[in-house]
Design goal:
The structure is a single chain. By secondary structure, this protein is α+β, with helices and mostly antiparallel strands. It folds into four domains: 73 residues, Ubiquitin-like (UB roll); 120 residues, Alpha-Beta Plaits, CATH 3.30.70.20; 60 residues, N-terminal domain of TfIIb (Single Sheet), CATH 2.20.25; 68 residues, no CATH class. Helices cover 23% and strands 16% of the residues. It contains nine helices and 16 strands. Helix 2 packs across helix 3. The chain is elongated. The chain starts with a strand and ends with a strand.
C-alpha cells in the first residue's frame, strides 16, 4: 500500500490530504446516507446517519467529518451499520410528526430526504410520534419563507448555510434539548433581520421544515411528478442555472411553472445558490399583463397589436429618421441583462457598426 491510500469496502483508493471518508466514497460511487451534510458547508457530524466502521476502532465514526489517513480500512455497509441507521431514522421520525404512510403529504420545499431514507432502510413510518414542542414564528409576514417546526430535526443545515454561504446569520438555533428550534433574534420576522430571502435555507433543508409560502406542489404520486427543465436565470448577467418545476397539467395542459429549485451543489457555476429573484420571482411567466405580441402606436395614439415584421419595420424607420435628422449620437441603445450574451453582442454591433455611435449600455455590465 502506497502513501495516501486507504481501503474502502475492500478496494484500495487514493485520496488527497484533507479528504473525508464521505468525499472519497462519493468519488467511488458508494452511497452513504446523510441528513446534516451539504458539500457547501463545513462538516458538522450532527445527524450521525453517515456512521461507518473503521478497523481497530470500537465505535462507529461519522464519514462526513472523519479525515482519511494512510492505511485506514473502512466499511460503509454491513448489518451493524444498517441496524444503526434504521434505528436512528425511526427516532428522527418520532420527532417529525409522522404517523404512518397516510400522514405523509406533498412537500412544498425540495422534498423530504428523511422520508426517502426511511423507505430505503425500511425504517418504520408508523413509529409512535412524540408531541413536537418546537416553536416557530407564526406571525412572520415575509412573503416567501416559512418554518414548520413539527418537521424540523434540528440538523442546523439552514442556520449553517445562512452563516457560512450567505454570511448574514439571519437565523440561528435557539432553546435547548428537545426544544431546540430555528429562530431569529427576539423572534422577529425575517423582514426585520439581515435575511436576503434567497431561499437557500429551503434548498438545503432535508425534511421540508424550511419551505415556501407559495402554494407549491411537489407531488408524491410518481404519475404526476413535476417536470424539471434546466434553464438560465434571466434577471441579471451572472447566468445562474436553475430548474423550473413544471406542472404538466397546469394552464389547461399547456404546463405551468409552480416553483424554482437549484441544481445540486457542485454541478453548476452558481453551486446550487440562487437569489430572491431567481428563486421566487417567476410569476411574470403567466402574468395576465405579460405582452405576448408586438404592439405599435397607431395614428390614434394608442397601441395596437402588430406582426413582428411590422414592428421591426417601424422600429428601423424610427431609428433611421432620428439618425438622419440629428446625427448618430442622438441615438442611445440600452440592452438587457435578461437577453443572452449573443443578443447583447448584436445590440452593441448594431449601435457601433450600423449607426456609428458608441452610446450603448447594458444594465449588468461589469
Amino acid at each position: 500500500m502506497t502513501e495516501n491510500t486507504a481501503i474502502l469496502n475492500g478496494h484500495e483508493i487514493r485520496f488527497e490530504p484533507g479528504d473525508t471518508i464521505l468525499t472519497a466514497a462519493e468519488r467511488m460511487g458508494v452511497d452513504i446516507p446523510t441528513l446534516c451534510h451539504d458539500p457547501r458547508l463545513k462538516p458538522a457530524g450532527a445527524c450521525r446517519t453517515c456512521l461507518v466502521e473503521i478497523k481497530k476502532r470500537p465505535k462507529l465514526a461519522p464519514a462526513c467529518a472523519t479525515a482519511l489517513t494512510p492505511g485506514m480500512e473502512i466499511v460503509t455497509h454491513n448489518e451493524r451499520i444498517e441496524r444503526h441507521v434504521r434505528t436512528l431514522l425511526a427516532l428522527y421520525l418520532t420527532d417529525h410528526a409522522v404517523h404512518g404512510e397516510a400522514s405523509i403529504v406533498s412537500e412544498q420545499g425540495t422534498g423530504n430526504k428523511l422520508i426517502d431514507l426511511a423507505r430505503a432502510y425500511d425504517a418504520p413510518l408508523d413509529w409512535p410520534s412524540l408531541d413536537n414542542i418546537r416553536k416557530g414564528r407564526p406571525e412572520d409576514v415575509n412573503p416567501y419563507v416559512t418554518f414548520q417546526p413539527e418537521k424540523c430535526i434540528a440538523c442546523a443545515r439552514c442556520t449553517r448555510y445562512c452563516a457560512e454561504v450567505e454570511s448574514v446569520s439571519a437565523i440561528t438555533m435557539a432553546e435547548r434539548g428537545s426544544r431546540t428550534t430555528v429562530f431569529t433574534a427576539d423572534g422577529r420576522s425575517l423582514m426585520d433581520t439581515t435575511c436576503e430571502l434567497c431561499g437557500g435555507c429551503i434548498d438545503t433543508c432535508p425534511t421540508g421544515a424550511m419551505t415556501e409560502k407559495k402554494p407549491l406542489l411537489a407531488r408524491v404520486d410518481s404519475s404526476k411528478a413535476l417536470k424539471k427543465v434546466r434553464t438560465t436565470c434571466n434577471y441579471c448577467g451572472v447566468g445562474c442555472q436553475m430548474d423550473l418545476n413544471v406542472d404538466p397539467d397546469g394552464n389547461e395542459g399547456r404546463g405551468k411553472v409552480v416553483k424554482v429549485t437549484s441544481p445540486p451543489p457542485g454541478t453548476t457555476t452558481n453551486d446550487g445558490n440562487l437569489c430572491v429573484k431567481g428563486r421566487f420571482a417567476y410569476d411574470f411567466i403567466d402574468h395576465n399583463e405579460r405582452l405576448t405580441t408586438p404592439l405599435v402606436r397607431g395614428e390614434d395614439g394608442k397601441l395596437h397589436e402588430a406582426t413582428w415584421d411590422e414592428a421591426y419595420r417601424r422600429a428601423a424607420e424610427g431609428l433611421i429618421k432620428v439618425s438622419t435628422q440629428h446625427g448618430p449620437n442622438a441615438l442611445g441603445f440600452v440592452s438587457s441583462s435578461r437577453c443572452t450574451m449573443e443578443e447583447n453582442y448584436l445590440m452593441q454591433k448594431m449601435s457601433r457598426a450600423v449607426f456609428h455611435t458608441n452610446n450603448v449600455h447594458q444594465c449588468a455590465a461589469t
